[in-house]
Amino acid sequence: MLFSKKQRGFFREKVDALRITDQHKGRSSVAVLCRQFGVSRGGYYAWLKRGISRRQIEDDNLLGKIMKVHRESREVYGYPSVHEALKTEGVICGRNRVSRLMRKNGIAARIARRFKRHSHRHELFRGTTNLLLDREPVTALTRCGLEMSPTSGLVRDSLI
């Protein structure tokens, strides 16, 4: 037994179960696999005869256009921008469809890097000294010609 009864709902779509049945039909009988995956044997054989659906062909064509727009945007566009670009080109499709196709095929927008401030000095200014650091700081007292005594903390006139 491949899967327990609880695991039968493992597949998102019946197509997944049919695909896996087709891959493993050499290891076990088709009847056992179909019973295990919860699909009918007749449905499996009908699926084998069926060709590619019209929707799948449209999705493949749309995927090519999505990849082209995404590549032209230097892979910066996410699904809303890709959808807008397709709309301006005259392609009629929904945003959710574009989102689904991009997600399924691993197409995602590149996330822009944030600007980082660097504390290092530019190479043109490396040899120069900072003249402002050598000066004494300007305060309201020094601007008026008064200075504060470092020992007593009293304000006196520096002009005397």
Overall average residue pLDDT: 81
Subunit arrangement of the protein = single chain
- Which bin fits the share of residues in helices? 40-55%
The run of helices and strands is: HHHHHHHHEE
Cross-sheet strand order for the largest sheet? 1-2
What characterizes the major β-sheet?
Answer: 2 strands, antiparallel
* DSSP summary: helix tally: 8
* Amount of beta strand: under 5%
Task: Tell me about this structure.
Helix content is 47%, strand content 4%. It is elongated. Strand 1 and strand 2 form a beta hairpin. It has a two-stranded antiparallel ribbon. The termini are far apart. The longest helix has 19 residues, at 54-72. Helix 1 (14-23) runs antiparallel to helix 2. The protein is mainly alpha-helical. Among the domains are: 5-49, no CATH class; 54-104. It contains 8 helices and 2 strands. The chain has helices at 14-23, 30-37, 41-49, 54-72, 79-89, 95-104, 131-134, 140-143; strands at 146-148, 155-157.
